[in-house]
Structure formats: C-alpha cells, structure tokens
C-alpha cells in the first residue's frame, strides 16, 4: 500500500483497525489480569498491581519513545527513498532498547523492596506486590523489544502482521491467566508469569519479518555514533513524558486515595484505570496509526491528504468517546462487577462514585491524543510533549491537590476530567497554529 497515493479511507482503516486491535491486545493483558486477580485474589491484589504501575510506566514509556521517535524518522526516510539510512536507524534502535531494557530491569529487580516502600506500600501490600513485580521484571525487556519491533513492522507496511503478533500475545495471556490463577491457583504470581510468557510471543512473531524478502528495513552493521538515535528519540519524547507522567500521577493518586479512602481506594482507582484504559487505548490506537501515515505524507509534502486523515481520526475518536460515555453512565455497576467480587462492598461503592465523574474525560481525551500524535508525526515534539504532559501530569496533579479543598472527596474524582478539558483547549490552539496547510 502506498500511503501517499492510495485511497485515503482505505489507507486509514487498513492502518487504524490493526493498530486499535493491537492496542486492545496490549491493554487486554492488564485488563485480563485485573479480571482474574479481582475475582480470584481480591481487591488487595488489584491494589498491589496498581502500586507497581509507575515502574511499568517508566519502562513502557522509554520503549515507546524509542519506537515512535525512531520509526517516524525511519518512515520519513522511506518516504524520501533513503532505505539505507532508514535501516541504520532501525538497527541502532534495536541495540539501544535491548541494552537499556535488560540493564534497567536488573537494577530495579535488585531494589524492589526499597522502591515499593518509596511508593507508599504498607507491609501487607509490599508482600503481594513483590510476588508480582519480581516476575514481571524478568520478562519486561522482551515486551520493550517487542514494542519497538511492532512499530518498525508497521512503518515497513506490515500493519496486519503487527496486529497478529499483539493478538496472539493477548490470547496466550488469557489462556495462561486462567491456567495459572484459576486452575493452578497460583494467585498474583501466576498472573505475572502468564503475562511474562505471553510477551515472548511478540519477538518470535515479529523478528522473522526483518529477515524476509518482504522487508524494506533490514538489520545492517551499525556505523558511526548514536546521535541520530538520540535526536529521533527526542521526536518521540512526548510519548515518554506521557507514560512517565501517568506513572507519577498514579503514584500521587495512590497516596491521596490511601490517605482518604484506605487500600480500598487504591483498588477502586485500579478499576477506574481499567475502564479508562479501554477507551484510551482505542483512541491511542487510532492516533498512533496516523504516525507512519502522516510522517510519509509529510515527507512527500501532501498536506491535503494529511487533513483528510485527521478528519477520519477526529470522527472515529469522537464515536469511541460517545460509546464509552454511554457504557459508564448506564452500566457502571456491571462494569465494576467485572473486576470485583460481590463482597468488596466498600471498593465497589468508591468505583461507582468515581464513575459519576470520570465519563467527562471521554469528551476530550480522544482529540487530545490525535493532535499529540499529529504533532509528533510532523516533527514538532515539543508541542506534542506539551499536550502529553498537560493531560497526564501537570493538570491532574494540580487538580488532585486543589479540587478536594473545594469539593472534598468528589474533587479527587474530578481531577482527571478537568485535566483533559484544559488540555483540550491547549491542543486546539496548537492544532490551529500547526495545521497541515500552514506547515507544508
């Protein structure tokens, strides 16, 4: 498929559908873990997973920064016809992510208890969290490498292969979660092992592509320094900032929730995060699929086509937001029951109170994600980063401390929707400033 010449609707849906399904496949790992742990381990298990979330945000964010930044740069080079330089970017990126992932995971593994203490976990929570985190850190490097391979497979015109890899990984996780947690009754240890093993599938499925005849990108001998990778990573910095900001925000929310509502508050926040994750990952998949499309059309100076792709994206994320709002408003109890046992009355009550306000976020978060992805694709990483850090860190943190003074506990629940609304205003201003007709 030639993304600079073929029919716009065909290109958009052939990239966005696999991307959305792929993102759902990625997020399904944590959602399925949440389902089995919430129903077979209890709300303390959910709290233990949520307390470790900032660590995975850091690692996942770094992988996304390298993957998105380098693949966008590589896509632009492919659009310009410079295949050799595109392959060099790809090869050096794989080397970087491999070294970073294994070194960082080892350091974290050796300091698990200290980290959990700093995150505010009490003795009981630390014991459960160590059981989960110690296994996950062994396997997380394979997920990080798999994420990078996934992005380069997509920019190499194989979006369906990327989707298949993510789908199979998700399927393996579901099967192993049932086997480990329900059948073998291994609890949170089994959940971590199931997720870890499923992450290996990404590499086994995606890596052979780059040795096939269909591949444009090939592994080549890395020549020269890695300044080019650092520059490319900067273009994906907004995604890193977004992920690490989400991690820090989650850490702060956990402190506030445990102080005001106890461990049940952290468990309830975990459930709300699962609900947010479903809608956000669909919108993220749509916006994410734009990056290889827009980067190539940007290189080919096709501003009218970029405008049409963005129209499709805005309409699609708007529809996703409407569906999520409908589900949260009219079926909150059913959604809470997916992750919680009937005996978790206090946790469920907090979830339902949270749901009364969280739906507002879906009015704005899809548009915020699309504009952020667009700015990354046209090599405006600083402005993309402004949107990312505004919605995931700056405004959530401000509102989590300010709003409770005005609205008490309800102020905690309003922090995320208010953050998305203020970010929406900023995103619209930036989009008007860097619209396709102005940048080309």
From TrEMBL:
<dbReference type="GO" id="GO:0015297">
    <property type="term" value="F:antiporter activity"/>
</dbReference>
<keyword id="KW-0812">Transmembrane</keyword>
<keyword id="KW-0813">Transport</keyword>
<dbReference type="Pfam" id="PF01554">
    <property type="entry name" value="MatE"/>
</dbReference>
<dbReference type="InterPro" id="IPR051327">
    <property type="entry name" value="MATE_MepA_subfamily"/>
</dbReference>
<dbReference type="InterPro" id="IPR048279">
    <property type="entry name" value="MdtK-like"/>
</dbReference>
<dbReference type="GO" id="GO:0046677">
    <property type="term" value="P:response to antibiotic"/>
</dbReference>
<dbReference type="InterPro" id="IPR045070">
    <property type="entry name" value="MATE_MepA-like"/>
</dbReference>
<keyword id="KW-1003">Cell membrane</keyword>
<dbReference type="GO" id="GO:0005886">
    <property type="term" value="C:plasma membrane"/>
</dbReference>
<protein>
    <recommendedName>
        <fullName>Multidrug export protein MepA</fullName>
    </recommendedName>
</protein>
<keyword id="KW-0046">Antibiotic resistance</keyword>
<keyword id="KW-0472">Membrane</keyword>
<comment type="similarity">
    <text>Belongs to the multi antimicrobial extrusion (MATE) (TC 2.A.66.1) family. MepA subfamily.</text>
</comment>
<keyword id="KW-1133">Transmembrane helix</keyword>
<dbReference type="InterPro" id="IPR002528">
    <property type="entry name" value="MATE_fam"/>
</dbReference>
<dbReference type="GO" id="GO:0042910">
    <property type="term" value="F:xenobiotic transmembrane transporter activity"/>
</dbReference>
